[in-house]
Amino acid sequence: MVNKNWALMAVFSFLVASIVTTMAAQTESAPGNASQFRTPLRYDYYEEKCGNVDNIVRRMMLRIVQLQHNAPAKLLRLLFHDCFIRGCDASVLLADSNNENGTVERDAIPNRTLKGFDFIDMIKDEIEEACPGVVSCSDILVLATRDGIVLAGGLYYPVLTGRRDSKESFFDEAMAEIPRPNGNISETLRLFSLRGFDERETVALLGGHNIGKIGCEFIRPRLSNFMGTGLPDPTIPSDFLEELMQKCPDDNSTINNMFNEHTARGLSESAISYSQGLSALSSVGTSFDNHYYKTLTRGRGLLFADQQLMANEKTAAVVMDYALDEGAIFRTEFAHAMVKLSNIGVLTGFQGEVRHSCSHLNSDQ
Question: Among 34, 59, 260, 321, which has the minimal tally of Cβ within 10 Å of its Cβ?
Answer without folding.
Answer: 34
